[in-house]
Each structure stands twice: as structure tokens, then as C-alpha cells.
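I'll show one example:
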Amino acid sequence: MKLRKGSHNATGLRFGVVVSKFNKFVTSKLLSSCAQTLAKHGAKAENIEVVRVPGAFDIPLVARTMAKSNRFDAVICLGAVIRGDTPHFDYISAEASRGIGQAAMDSDVPIIFGVLTTDTVAQAIERADPGKFNRGGEAAESAIEMASVVKQLKAMEQVPDESESKPKSKRVARRRAK
């Protein structure tokens, strides 16, 4: 059995970060923790590019565009959608998550979901609190791990499989000779 896993070393990796401006009192804390975590694990500031978008609904398009640019090893999506009195929350959170997932599948680049979807403002603030459990930092750690494991797998595509270079059985060779 072969086991492959990502590392927690961000040295030399490039990250795109898409951050929603809506609910900035939460998303700015997510971004701060994300940047600190990337730096703590070896990412250089010049290898991190941040793009601000109006709201969570706008994140997928920019994430996909960044991922397809071939300039980033991973893209991190940060936002906060807080439930209100209308069904707007359901539409925005569903479309943001669907769009981010689709962007990852379209680009073959890890795109990390760091969009909070909470019932209350208090829950959002708690999940962005750097003194407790900040989801921005967690998203950065996921991005580092996914970027490193995808790099490993892509490098394996470049190396020919040993079984392909082994001679075929005599029977197969005779069939081909006929």
C-alpha cells in the first residue's frame, strides 16, 4: 500500500485568497488569521495575493479565475454569510458552496472553502476569534496540505510507471508480431 499525504510546509508555495467584503467585521479577522498561518508555515508575503469581492456569491468566479491562471498552488475562499429573516441566507450559502466546489473541479487546483455560514452574528464572531478557533487559519492549513499533496500527485504523472517499461509476456509479444 502506498500512502501519500500533504505536508504543512508552505515554503515556495503560492496562494490566492478571495475575501468577501460583506460582513467585513468577520472576514477581516478570517483574512488576518489566514495570512498569519501561511507565514507561520513558511509562505512569503510576495507569494500571497488577496482579492476582495463584494460578497460570498462573488467568491466562486474569482476563485476559479485565480486557479485557472496557473499562478497559484491553492486558492483560499473566505467569507461570512449570516442568517437573517429572509431565505436570502439559504440561496447565498448554497450557491457559494456549490460554486466553490465547481471551481475546484474545473481548475484542478485546490480551492479551500473558508466561508462561514452561521445562524447568528455571535456565532460568526466566535468562529473568527483569533483567541479561540479562527476558521481563516484552518483554511490556510488545509490549503498548504492540499497544495503539497496535489504537487506530489502531479509530479507522479511525470514519472513513468515501472510496470509500463517491463517486457510483456511472450504470448502478447507473439500476438503483436502476427
In short: Confidence is low (pLDDT under 50) at residues 171-175. Helices lie at 24-40, 59-68, 88-107, 121-127, 135-158, 162-165, 170-177. Strands lie at 15-20, 48-53, 74-82, 111-118. The chain is about 50% helix and 15% strand.
